[in-house]
Amino acid sequence: MIRFAAIRPARRLAGPALLRSRCSRGFIHGLLVCAVLVPGCRADPEGSATEDPAADGTPGQTHVPFERLVNADAEPHNWLTYSGNYASHRFSQLDQIDRSNVGDLKVLWAYQMDDGIIETTPLAVDGILYVTEPPSTVSALDARSGRRLWTWSPEMGPDVLNIGFPRVNRGVAVLDSTVFVGTLNAHLVALDARSGAVRWDVEVGDNAIGFSLTLAPLVVKDKVIVGVSGAEAGVRGYLDAYDAETGELAWRTYTIPAPGEPGSETWGGNSWETGGGSTWLTGSYDPELDLLYWPIGNPAPDWNGDVRPGDNLYTDCLLALDPDTGEMIWYFQFTPHDTHDWDANQIQVLLDAEWEGEPRKLVVTANRNAFYYVLDRETGEFLLAREYSKQTWAEGIDENGRPIVIPGTDPTEEGVLVWPSLQGSANWFSPSYSPRTGLFYQPTRIMGAVYFKADVEYVPGQPYTGGGEQALRGEEASGAIKALDALTGELVWEFPLLSPPWSGAMATAGDLVFSGDNEGNIFALDAQTGEPLWNFQSGGAVRSGPMSYEVDGRQRIVSSAGGTLFVFGLD
Amino acid sequence: MRQGSICRTPSIFAALVAAAGLAAAPLAAQEALAFSDGELERGQRLYQAHCGRCHGVLGMGGEGPGLAVSRLPRAPDHAAVIDVIRNGIPGTGMPGLRATVLPDEEAALVAAHVISLREAQLVEIPGDPERGRRIFETTGVCYSCHIVEGRGVGIGPELTGIGMRRGPGYLRASLVDPSAELPVFRSGARSGFARYLPLRAVTRDGTVYEGMRANEDAFTVQLITGTGSIVSLRKADLAELEKRFGHSLMPATAGLSSEDIDNLIAYLASLGG
């Protein structure tokens, strides 16, 4: 029996002394704003605002040094990084909303965005929500009322390319008093957290040949780590780190080795030059091991593997990197020589557990290829894989972690029916891991597709995919929220959905799992049993990164649907 | 197991063409559009893979309308056919095919094949539409569930313009064996879901509801009963929810002669034509 340490820190832990001393009375709007707007501040009987000594951050001012990101679990009222913490648990320690009262949840406010698909996860920092709006807008909202404090949009023409993905943005990163956003035209921009003014703006890649940014950047120490989209345009992918102060490029690690570099033998001819390997979803970080974990996307062209013989490293891999230098420490490839567009760009969840009687540092992920993986995150050693959703392409995963591919499952000109579809069993939308239940909650797509292969020629700035798919839809496809044993991948319960979902999940210390579906429901399930406890019909498809925060001592749940961000609470 | 049901093999297609005694690629269209024999053959293969399921491998229609007709009202020329292939036809079952599924060059070849079908004019409909109309209004009691041009009862599919949406073979199957294939949403958020799906729901207190699915999500289901009442149910309140695939609330036209059925088909095919 493997046991998890129950992590239940007291709420409202006092932050480090240096943070508490930062409360500035000179805040731009003065005492009144501090009293009415900012949690953690309160008006004292004499009528002057008083700093709340228990507050973690500086009221009304965003100031998030790296130490706060490392200790994000100690600030359950905030949500400081894309996946909630560096281990990417997307788990809220808040427990005010629980199984007994979740049925009373109601919309407290909503924030409407312009046309487009919302895939953002807001950050909550001491009373302010930082949200992104499609395609690349950042807005700061009063976390209490939803009223906007500022907004910023990049100057982009209508001809900005987005080849292989919609015009979306998934969120920002924050460090100290700066907010970082990646844009559709492949810039990384640093914004002043108080005003939205640009501090610096760098081009990460050339949008004219297909580079783009849709992910939330990840801050590690003094660097902003950001990955690129573009494999469907035949880019050669890389992961970048920028100095957070200056925007200067600190390092760049290519995901496709050049001739002579390790792994280059897995690419035939010159195929490496257009080999794909995007880095389009936010990675995870282990401060103790000081290792950065970043998933890598599909090889290009997607469906015609003939032009790129070999395993095509490091596509469809998980890379462990030195965050200071970008040096690759280890890699693990989930889908060698992928011909189905099964990027490994899923959230990599870090957890510590007993493994065969010994404490072990693990990284787990539900891959797009329909297998759930457990790896040792110090060494990259493969420990376990288990099918968690319908698939017809592999007999299984061998003892080294390599799939045993069923012959005849590669795309053809006539079409071949394979599960899962190119969008995979999982995708960008986040799973959640609850240390209280030991379960890994995965919104799961159960969908097959007829895959086609086509001739393909690389033209810069054009799709370079070599085929496509016709997915089975409607009654022939479905979805589920699956609760997997995080250490074995075994199904513990599932909640069926009518169609393959696009929303992430978030578990909470109230033993709830929040998620959403294409049919418009934002809902809560019992984290232990999967029993549905609450749902809200939003009227728009949910493609959300759900999160939770606290304002005025009250827990809030955030999800988006259609063109609207919703904030729920008990009162 | 690997072969998708939507894929027809070229050999089947060739056999059908041979059986129909037709040339595979009529010359007139070929010259007018300046496509080579090889290109038109490729267009034919692509058509059969991407379009054949609904429009029939010979273009004689099926779930979608026949394309081997003298005139395509929504797509009179090659460019218009490409436009329909790319963008679909809103409000109908015709989806748009993205360039990732069908690149521009291939879309042009498919459109060339569709134009060439026009020359073949394969779609023949026996029967007398005027007699069919009378059967529709009298013996068939079709207005009791269907609306045509504003008249009738809206329980089953509206049939105004049905001739532009369905092929004669599909219409025949719908009349003779309505449960064989239910209409399916072909575009929009509900793409691929059966329409008019018969449901049987039993609540925890034993009440039974039967009707057709109007909508459904993970938590609720809405159905329309045979008398046209809307019933809203929460799945949490149900002891049982049976989706009766392979069934239809449309009565089979067992009492009609084959001639009457031909006439009905001729009438329906004329609607919207």
Question: How does the SSE layout of this entry go?
Answer:
The complex is a heterodimer of chains A (571) and B (273).
Chain A: H1 17-20, H2 30-37, E1 41-43, E2 49-51, H3 66-70, E3 91-92, E4 106-112, E5 123-125, E6 128-133, E7 137-142, E8 148-152, E9 173-175, E10 178-182, E11 187-192, E12 198-203, E13 218-220, E14 223-227, E15 238-243, E16 249-254, E17 284-286, E18 291-295, E19 317-321, E20 328-333, E21 349-355, E22 358-366, E23 371-376, E24 382-387, E25 394-397, E26 403-405, E27 416-418, E28 432-434, E29 439-446, E30 449-453, E31 467-471, E32 478-485, E33 491-497, E34 506-508, E35 512-516, E36 521-526, E37 532-537, E38 547-551, E39 554-561, E40 564-569
Parallel strand pairs in A: 3-34
Antiparallel strand pairs in A: 1-2, 4-40, 5-6, 6-7, 7-8, 9-10, 10-11, 11-12, 13-14, 14-15, 15-16, 17-18, 18-19, 19-20, 21-22, 22-23, 23-24, 25-26, 27-30, 28-29, 29-32, 30-31, 32-33, 34-35, 35-36, 36-37, 38-39, 39-40
Chain B: H1 10-20, H2 27-33, H3 37-50, H4 52-55, H5 78-87, H6 104-120, H7 129-137, E1 147-148, E2 151-152, H8 162-165, H9 168-176, E3 198-203, E4 208-216, E5 220-224, E6 230-234, E7 238-243, H10 258-270
Antiparallel strand pairs in B: 1-2, 3-4, 3-7, 4-5, 5-6
Helix pairs in contact in B: 2-6, 3-6, 5-6, 7-10, 9-10
> How would you classify the helix and strand content of chain A by structural class?
mainly beta
Shape of chain B: globular
Biggest sheet of chain B: strands, sense, closure?
A: 5 strands, antiparallel
Number of strands of chain A: 40
Strand content of chain B: 5-15%
SS field, number of helical segments of chain B: 10
What does the oligomeric state look like here? heterodimer
What's the end-to-end separation of chain A, in Å?
41 Å
Largest interface between protein chains, with number of residues from each side:
A-B, 38 and 33 residues
Strand order of the largest sheet of chain B: 6-5-4-3-7
Low-confidence stretches of chain A: 1-56
Kindly report the CATH topology of the largest domain in chain A. Methanol Dehydrogenase, Chain A
The CATH topology of the largest domain in chain B comes to Cytochrome Bc1 Complex, Chain D, domain 2
Distance between the termini of chain B: 40 Å
**What is the arithmetic mean of pLDDT of chain B?**
82
Strand order of the largest sheet of chain A: 3-34-35-36-37
CATH level 4 superfamily of the largest domain in chain B? Cytochrome c-like domain
> How many domains in all of chain A?
2
Mean pLDDT of chain A: 90
